[in-house]
Write a structure and sequence with these properties.
mainly alpha
Length: 71
């Protein structure tokens, strides 16, 4: 009888152990803070993109003006 009870307890503990009972999930990774240098680089990149768009627009205007002048 003791053997059967011990076997049942052992089997139950093995079943609970394989189900992951009592395990905690890993905490989410902390949010990465942006350093000052990364912020400056990001702002500079945005300004460069804006400048490129303006130059493209101006180049199109010049191209149209040249085409109109040569007609």
């Amino acid at each position: 009888m003791w053997r059967a009870l011990l076997a049942a307890v052992f089997a139950g503990s093995m079943a609970l152990g394989t189900m992951g009972c009592g395990e905690e999930s890993a905490p989410p990774p902390p949010e990465k803070k942006q350093s000052k240098i990364e912020g400056v680089i990001k702002k500079a990149g945005e300004e460069v993109k804006k400048g490129v768009e303006e130059v493209k627009k101006d180049a199109e205007d010049v191209k149209k003006a040249v085409e109109d002048a040569t007609k």
